[in-house]
Amino acid sequence: MCVSVLKRIALSLMLAGAIGAAIILYVTRPQGLPDDALDGLVADAARGEVVFWAGGCAACHAAADATGEQKLVLGGGQRFPSPFGTFVAPNISNDPDAGIGRWSAMDLANAMTRGVSPEGAHYYPVFPFGSYARSTLQDIVDLRAFLATVPADSKPSAPHEVGFPFNIRLGLGLWKMLYLDSDWVLTGNLTPEESRGRYLVEALAHCGECHTPRDAFGGLRRNRWLAGGPTPDGKGNFPNITPGKLDWSEADVAEYLNSGFTPEYDSAGGHMALVVENTARLPAEDRMAIAAYLKRVPPIE
Q1: Which residues contact 252 (CB under 8 A, 6 or more apart)?
Q2: How many other CB atoms are there within 10 angstroms of residue 68's CB atom?
Q3: Which domain of life, per UniProt (predicted)?
Q4: Pair (189, 290) in one structural domain
Q5: Residue 3: inside a domain
Q6: Which of 164, 171, 189 has its CA nearest to residue 85?
């Protein structure tokens, strides 16, 4: 085969590869909500406070040892080790420069449901937009109104400590194609209480992000929903909270989410203690709704 033919073949392969890469980059580009997605929605900061506590914002974005009103100082800084690197919670306080004080409701909605920053970049899924994608836009608008009332903190966000190739965010578009799914995990005929519990567990409270095992690419294994798995730092395990393991009554579950005490008089520890501080602020009927939902989840031994 002559040299000119080989050159043409090589150039054709290079061109095909370039076209293929361009197509992939276009398909997986960060994409926000339609411009009119929030039209007609009126913000209510009081309702937004319930969304704030249900969503666990303070558990990650306040200081780990914060108490009382310090829970509303959302300067970030908590570190979350994982197989992909160490992620650091950013400042989401009301500071206009270091925090999200300049964000619009649409900015927050794009971040929470599409994993897209105001600058048009992919967020890492350590920010649980995979669960928040099931949230109603009304709740997000209300949450934005509440976040406008929290204190400003001028501390800059620390960068994530993520090495190659995970520091290349373009690849996150492919991750989203595989795993970003706003469909409910638990389907079927649910009571209004169970439906509310599903919304809290699968969307706002993002319980599955910890209690569901992940595959090699960090995607949730939905066929083992809430069955527990190793912690991202590899030093422990999240418990199985399906009926196959968790045999507490609905009242027991609701009490644990209120006080942190188990039926055996043990108490919540670690990051779960921070979660309980959030769920304790929810209306009692929401804690009972979570308990009712957990009883409907398919049991996994």
Answers
A1: 262, 263, 291
A2: 6
A3: Bacteria
A4: yes
A5: no
A6: 164
